[in-house]
Known about the structure:
alpha+beta, single chain, 35% helix
Amino acid sequence: MALFGEEVEDEDRDKWIVWFDGASNALGHGVGVVLVTPDIQCIPFATRLCFDCTNSMAEYEACALGIQAAIDFNVKLLKVYEDSALVINQLKGERETRDHKLIPYQAYIKKLMEFFDNISFHHIPKEENQMANALATLASMFQLTPHGDLSYIQFRCRGKPAHCCLIEEEQDGKPWYFNIKRYIEDKEYPREASDNDKRMMQRLSAGFFLSEGILYKQNHDMVLLRCVDAREAKHMLVEVHGGSFGTHANGHAMARKILRVG
């Protein structure tokens, strides 16, 4: 079973996992933690640090937050992951902690480790710690008022552009332009159409053009726009925004791309 790029061994299936990271930039300092249950449920935490600190201090703050969260859930078996080799090696006792600002953190975390039957620390590549890093970065940049805590952020995967959801399926199986097309072809009005409905149909049809069975809408600059049903519209939007046509580019970017290819 894979989790965030890490293969979970059978003997680790009953263990909880903590991913943590710290971020320091011109806007502030933040920490991000992801607590993962044995059944792969992710519980994210993000905290803004409202005091001056170094990047390593932010890393230790994140580690302490993650371990404390595990204690609050009464976890006894824990694996801790982070992309800072310095912090992980110091916590494992493989590297001496000389920075006087970090020594109190290390002592505090050692005290927290006593709450567990088994706890281990592991270094991972930065690309495998993206969620914790994103939470830390968000916390460092996002301003909060005193005691202005926010609830958890919910992440979801969306497989198609949001506006595709606005295209409604035709309830009767007929496209939205069915009556317009039938009027242009056969001069037939919808059943039970009133005189006012018929006049409206005449005005609407004047703006459409039928060619070889395909209906087009005449634009204000005389460009013909093909009329499509809901199924065709969804397919086209998905293709344009996320399929074979790829990402949109503005005119200047497209021109540069064409020149490079040419």
